[in-house]
Write a structure and sequence with these properties.
Shape: globular
Number of strands: 8
Strand content: 25-35%
Distance between the termini: 16 Å
Helix content: 25-40%
Largest sheet: 4 strands, antiparallel
Number of helices: 4
Radius of gyration: 16 Å
Order of helices and strands: EHEEEHEEEEHH
């Protein structure tokens, strides 16, 4: 089972003058909602997590949904033996999360993992469902904390692009 989560940083708060109702996509993805994220395999009790405090958590959720869709470009779907690769880079560092899909499975690794550690492996369909659920749950949490965010057209478009499955 997959567990995706986040925590917001107290060291990097959003600017107090932010109007969340009109914030553009760049601000939503890169300038607001900083913290840490994790992806865990609850069956093996292993996780990949950041501990930097500055990761834009909405951008992580958005990028993860994008990546899961990019990993599904082979018309043979889960029957495809050809590996498909994608990466999520963290803009303030050289660290990356690496994704590789083969057949119906996705291996998730990170630059900061010890070389001897095996990647986390998830079913692609389950990862797609969990990534979208995480995005919608995160947006709901953030909208509860930040007045006007639920009325932002960029947020509406994001949720429409990646509906819950």
């Amino acid at each position: 089972m997959i567990d995706l989560g986040y925590s917001l940083s107290r060291r990097f708060p959003d600017p107090p003058q932010t109007d969340y109702r009109t914030a553009d996509a760049h601000a939503l993805r890169h300038d607001l909602f900083c913290g840490d994220v994790y992806i865990a395999d609850t069956e093996t009790d292993r996780e990949l997590s950041t501990a930097w405090g500055w990761v834009p958590v909405l951008d992580f959720a958005w990028a993860l949904c994008d990546i899961v869709e990019r990993l599904d470009t082979d018309s043979r779907g889960s029957r495809s033996a050809r590996p498909i690769h994608a990466e999520l880079d963290f803009t303030e560092s050289t660290d990356r999360m690496l994704f590789e899909r083969r057949f119906g499975w996705v291996d998730v690794a990170a630059d900061w993992m010890p070389a001897e550690d095996a990647p986390l492996t998830f079913n692609h369909a389950a990862l797609r469902r969990e990534a979208r659920d995480f995005l919608h749950d995160l947006v709901a949490d953030l909208a509860d904390m930040h007045e006007g965010l639920a009325d932002n057209p960029t947020i509406w478009a994001l949720q429409a692009r990646f509906p819950r499955i």
